[in-house]
Design brief:
Elements (H helix, E strand, L loop, with lengths): L2 H5 L7 H6 L3 E5 L2 E6 L3 H10 L2 E4 L4 E8 L1 H6 L14 E7 L5 E12 L6 E8 L4 H11 L5 E5 L5 E6 L3 H5 L15 E6 L2 E6 L8 E6 L1 H13 L3 E3 L1 H10 L33 H10 L3 E8 L10 E4 L2 E11 L6 E8 L8 E6 L2 E8 L8
Parallel strand pairs: 3-13
Antiparallel strand pairs: 1-2, 3-9, 4-7, 4-8, 5-6, 6-7, 9-12, 10-11, 11-12, 14-17, 14-19, 15-16, 15-18, 16-17, 18-19
Helix pairs in contact: 3-8
């Protein structure tokens, strides 16, 4: 990519600090993002063994407030948000009318207004590549007469602090004890009298936090973390970490042609409420999906990359959507779609890599699970 092309990209509030840490940058969804700071393996293992931090300020950040927010948003997702409690979050997906995935999102419910319990508020974090699409879909399909929707994407910074040492790094900075925040819990606090939103969520397979705040406080936090030996991490190891945890990447492992049941996200589907695309998912639940996303382990070190064909009995039956050499396991791993009848654990597969065939097997998800 040329200097001119890079100069036309959006930059996060932490861009200059990443430059000082000698980051290598790449274009990601129109943002100039750090791909790597030191080495992919070093950054990856820092998260697995101690703590690392990611600038994820490029992600879409929407605030929502209005009458019966949960019930209004409930119609757009297959998860039932009606009983979601204040201070809790739900990973789910926005669906189109065919049951396809518009985007995968996290909804953080912030509770009811003290004076009017019909007024509720929450935060939606969405993918950078789909921010504009998600915004348009929400504007069209939410009852925006009763719900105020605000795009804060470029107003706030977002840092992911991930790894077993995240607690001891973050705890001294806030008055609350972050160790008592439950998994998929969140709270709003202050640092230097400015708002800081802290959520115990992530995209690495490790415990840790995602921190949304003003650019000034984010810059102070980033520098503080650097001073306390937190490893800055780029998008490169973010991808290897999430793949080890068998977490889907939107645009590769799922899209608008794929339903959550096909993508292995059946645990987020609740058919006991009305939602967009319910009829399609109900049929798939009853009759089984035709294809399914599976975890694949190569028998050797050859890496199955995105788009590589998956074969059974010398017949192409699907394709790889994500693949890498796992730094933690030192094994080649992948995700890919195969017909439902071939999706059972233990199913033997063949992957075509540069016109040669290599053996692989369907394994249980995730590849890596923290102790």
């Amino acid at each position: 990519m040329t200097v001119t092309e890079l100069s036309n990209l959006l930059r996060t509030p932490l861009y200059s600090l990443s430059c000082k840490s000698h980051a290598r940058f790449t274009d990601f969804a129109g943002w100039e993002m750090a791909l790597q700071y030191s080495s992919l393996k070093k950054e990856h293992l820092a998260v697995r063994e101690s703590v690392g931090m990611f600038d994820i300020s490029h992600m879409g950040k929407f605030s929502l407030q209005g009458k019966n927010l949960r019930s209004s948003l409930n119609y757009l997702v297959p998860s039932d948000l009606s009983n979601l409690e204040k201070g809790k979050a739900q990973y789910t997906v926005l669906l189109n009318h065919n049951g396809g995935i518009i985007d995968d999102i996290i909804f953080y419910y912030q509770g009811e207004n003290e004076n009017d319990h019909n007024i509720e508020s929450g935060i939606l974090i969405v993918n950078a590549s789909t921010t504009a699409k998600d915004w348009a879909w929400l504007r069209k399909n939410l009852n925006t007469q009763d719900i105020e929707l605000k795009d804060n994407t470029q107003d706030f910074a977002l840092i992911a602090l991930q790894g077993k040492q995240a607690f001891q790094i973050l705890n001294p900075l806030v008055k609350e004890d972050v160790t008592v925040i439950p998994n998929f819990g969140h709270l709003t606090t202050t640092i230097d009298n400015e708002m800081v939103f802290i959520a115990r969520t992530g995209y690495t397979g490790e415990d840790g936090f995602e921190i949304m705040t003003t650019p000034l406080i984010a810059q102070k936090l980033w520098q503080y973390f650097l001073n306390n030996n937190v490893t800055p991490c780029g998008l490169g190891c973010r991808d290897t970490l999430r793949l080890e945890a068998a977490m889907c990447l939107y645009g590769q492992d799922m899209n608008e042609e794929i339903t959550p049941l096909e993508a292995g996200l059946g645990w987020i589907v609740n058919l006991n409420h009305d939602f967009v695309g319910k009829e399609i998912l109900s049929t798939q639940k009853r009759e089984n999906v035709k294809k399914r996303l599976v975890a694949i382990k190569m028998e050797g070190k050859h890496i199955a990359r995105h788009g590589y064909p998956i074969l059974i009995n010398n017949e192409t039956v699907g394709e790889v959507t994500s693949g890498t050499l796992s730094p933690t396991l030192n094994k080649a791993i992948a995700l890919g779609y195969v017909p439902y009848n071939y999706s059972k654990i233990g199913q033997k597969l063949t992957i075509e890599i540069r016109e040669k065939l290599y053996p692989a097997i369907v394994v249980k998800k995730p590849f890596y699970r923290r102790s």
